[in-house]
Amino acid sequence: MPADLPPRRARLPQAPWLRLLALLFGLLALGSAAAQAPAADCQAAALTAGDGLRGSVPLAGRLMAVDDRGKRLDIGSVTAAPGFAPVAGAVHTRSGGGSTWFRLCLQRAADAPAQWMLTVLPPYLGEVALYSPLGDGGFRLQRQGAALPRQDDGLSYRGFSFTMDLPADAPAIHYLQVSTTTSMRAELGLFQPAGLFAEVSRDAGGFGFYLGMLVLVVAINGIFWLWLRDPAQLLYAGTVAAIGLFAAITSGYAGLLLPWPVDMRLAYALSGCLMWALGGLYFSTTLKLRHRYPRRWQLNRAIVLAYCLGALAIVLQPGLVLRGVLHLVMLGHMALVVSTAIDTYRRYPPLRLYILAFLPLVLSLVVVIVGSELGLDAGSPALLLHGSSLIHVVLLNIVLVRRVFEAERERRDAQATALRLAQESERVLEQRVEERTRSLDAANGRLTQEVAERRAVERKLQQALEAEQQANGALRRFLSMVSHEFRTPLATIQLSAQRLSRALQEQAPELLPQPAKIVRNVGRLLGLIDNLLAEDRLGAAAMNPRMEYLDLARHLRLRYGEHAGGRVGLQLPRGGVIVLGDPQLLDIAISNLIDNALKYSPASAPVNVSLAVVDDLVEVKVSDQGPGIPEGERERIFDKYYRQDRVSTKPGTGLGLHLAREFARRHGGDLTLAEAQAGQEGGATFVLHLPLAISRPSSNESGDSDGLAA
């Protein structure tokens, strides 16, 4: 093990100048001793022709080391340093950002070859420099390192290799400087060139077998995932792939296999974080931590996140040293894994094989991490990790294959159960189909009988409908005949009453109300007859309106200008307002609105009628001062024969508004009841919309229409 410089055995004199003088003499003495007798303490056994051919030459007795924590020593001061301590072929460097210096005392026998090879592992050491003595007292420098361009030594060695020429007449001292940012285990080896070539071949063959096993495991688990669609298979394939990547990087083969330069320190950190993160996810998935151990599942997620954040930090800041922090996280992760494994082993017997398969890998990781931090020599970390991971992979794949066979057996059992259930269901279904067929046959018989009965009823209904239609036709013809028969005498009575009124205006004015009453009642009867005839015409199957051009403004002016003693107030535009429609039907629609307004308004209250053109529509508004329309009856008043209860004492048939709306819609318009204004009590406004004529009529057509309106 390396040691610090030994403490001084005795106190120096207390006077400062005496201390300085003693120090100078001491340095001069050490320098002269090193210059005049460099091999005074170099008494190593000579290397023979058989050494270094079947493995490394043991370096015990030939190797010494000293720590240079501040990296303050150079080759000149190191040759004079008395603090070297003997070590074997592997040493834990504790430079903490400095260097560790190794002194190799080598001598060969006369029959041994002059050229030898010095190897240094692991391949992710920061910088390794070899100082070989020259005949003139100087040193030849060879420098390699993880962050330096790789040198082609012709051997494809996974670590660092240096060539040394050894004299046969006297021992030679070589100095090796290893610079690292953290404490780690360095392995040194000494070979003949042929022995190193054989070592490289054996090592590459073993790693190739190991890597091939991992690739096979990844392929098998990938196939299992494609077959079973089990996420655990895919996750384990990724974990094994990460283990293989980490092994290739830590062993140095990644630098040989990849065609581009690789920063081994950065690759080591990233691959380690990836391996631990995927391993944590697989551990959580396999043991179902989320359902069985929710708190441990959350802790495992936090640890996986810490690995990912560590990898991200290393990528963003390549010089960042997180090895100590990551080792603490890994040890905490191992504690979580071990405690969970013990509890799972006790509570869930089917998972015991999984736990046993993980045991070698977990133990080796704990040994490597603890040994690295405490400086314990537990053998080669790469060999330990490779061997334990290989044992883990073999055991776990045995478990996975067993799981696959069990899943296949369960699948076959499930298929057999499903087949049995399907056959049972088919038998039950056939029985139900037979029962259903019998019930359907009975239902078809009943349905056939019911269809025959319904057809008989339908024939009777058709006969009744035809009889009703004939009766309705006879009724309409009778009603039309009676209406026409009544119309002539009623018109005569109305004309006579009007003449009587004009005669009484001069001779007996006090008798004028009597003929006026006759005129009003006769007019009401004539309106009733017109509505009945119009309703009969509306109900006819082949109603064909007689479309003509009509000037509504002139029609309203002539028809209602002197009507009802001046109660009808007209608001008409100066020009004509032309519509295309049946003059008789439109006159009935408008007269129904105005007559209703006069009938339901107080005797002295006026009725306002306005005419306007709004957006290519003719708008006729009729406003009264009657009792108004309740909100719940705004649409019902347009129903056929509907009358409000509170106005049932007023004469009427309930056809006026119904006919007015139907006639408006037959002309492409509509009749609506306007919304009452806020605070309005009583009164109603009906709005009649009709399409405005596209082109104006000729003078003859206008004259004819006016004649009809008059």
UniProtKB/TrEMBL annotation:
<feature type="transmembrane region" description="Helical">
    <location>
        <begin position="299"/>
        <end position="316"/>
    </location>
</feature>
<dbReference type="GO" id="GO:0007234">
    <property type="term" value="P:osmosensory signaling via phosphorelay pathway"/>
</dbReference>
<dbReference type="InterPro" id="IPR004358">
    <property type="entry name" value="Sig_transdc_His_kin-like_C"/>
</dbReference>
<dbReference type="InterPro" id="IPR011623">
    <property type="entry name" value="7TMR_DISM_rcpt_extracell_dom1"/>
</dbReference>
<keyword id="KW-0808">Transferase</keyword>
<dbReference type="InterPro" id="IPR011622">
    <property type="entry name" value="7TMR_DISM_rcpt_extracell_dom2"/>
</dbReference>
<keyword id="KW-0812">Transmembrane</keyword>
<keyword id="KW-0547">Nucleotide-binding</keyword>
<feature type="signal peptide">
    <location>
        <begin position="1"/>
        <end position="39"/>
    </location>
</feature>
<feature type="domain" description="Histidine kinase">
    <location>
        <begin position="481"/>
        <end position="694"/>
    </location>
</feature>
<feature type="transmembrane region" description="Helical">
    <location>
        <begin position="234"/>
        <end position="254"/>
    </location>
</feature>
<keyword id="KW-0597">Phosphoprotein</keyword>
<feature type="coiled-coil region">
    <location>
        <begin position="404"/>
        <end position="477"/>
    </location>
</feature>
<keyword id="KW-0067">ATP-binding</keyword>
<keyword id="KW-0175">Coiled coil</keyword>
<dbReference type="InterPro" id="IPR003661">
    <property type="entry name" value="HisK_dim/P_dom"/>
</dbReference>
<dbReference type="GO" id="GO:0030295">
    <property type="term" value="F:protein kinase activator activity"/>
</dbReference>
<dbReference type="Pfam" id="PF07696">
    <property type="entry name" value="7TMR-DISMED2"/>
</dbReference>
<dbReference type="Pfam" id="PF07695">
    <property type="entry name" value="7TMR-DISM_7TM"/>
</dbReference>
<dbReference type="GO" id="GO:0000155">
    <property type="term" value="F:phosphorelay sensor kinase activity"/>
</dbReference>
<dbReference type="GO" id="GO:0005524">
    <property type="term" value="F:ATP binding"/>
</dbReference>
<protein>
    <recommendedName>
        <fullName>histidine kinase</fullName>
        <ecNumber>2.7.13.3</ecNumber>
    </recommendedName>
</protein>
<keyword id="KW-0472">Membrane</keyword>
<dbReference type="InterPro" id="IPR050351">
    <property type="entry name" value="BphY/WalK/GraS-like"/>
</dbReference>
<keyword id="KW-1133">Transmembrane helix</keyword>
<dbReference type="InterPro" id="IPR036890">
    <property type="entry name" value="HATPase_C_sf"/>
</dbReference>
<keyword id="KW-0418">Kinase</keyword>
<feature type="transmembrane region" description="Helical">
    <location>
        <begin position="207"/>
        <end position="227"/>
    </location>
</feature>
<feature type="transmembrane region" description="Helical">
    <location>
        <begin position="383"/>
        <end position="405"/>
    </location>
</feature>
<dbReference type="GO" id="GO:0000156">
    <property type="term" value="F:phosphorelay response regulator activity"/>
</dbReference>
<feature type="transmembrane region" description="Helical">
    <location>
        <begin position="322"/>
        <end position="341"/>
    </location>
</feature>
<dbReference type="InterPro" id="IPR036097">
    <property type="entry name" value="HisK_dim/P_sf"/>
</dbReference>
<dbReference type="Pfam" id="PF00512">
    <property type="entry name" value="HisKA"/>
</dbReference>
<dbReference type="InterPro" id="IPR005467">
    <property type="entry name" value="His_kinase_dom"/>
</dbReference>
<keyword id="KW-0732">Signal</keyword>
<dbReference type="InterPro" id="IPR003594">
    <property type="entry name" value="HATPase_dom"/>
</dbReference>
<dbReference type="Pfam" id="PF02518">
    <property type="entry name" value="HATPase_c"/>
</dbReference>
<feature type="transmembrane region" description="Helical">
    <location>
        <begin position="266"/>
        <end position="287"/>
    </location>
</feature>
<feature type="transmembrane region" description="Helical">
    <location>
        <begin position="353"/>
        <end position="371"/>
    </location>
</feature>
<keyword id="KW-0902">Two-component regulatory system</keyword>
